[in-house]
Amino acid sequence: MANNSMRDEVMHPDKKRGVAILEAMPEAGPEESIFGKRWGSGAAIQISRQEIEALQDGKILAIDVECEYVVYIQFRKDVEV
Question: Does residue 9 have a pLDDT over 80?
Answer without folding.
Answer: no
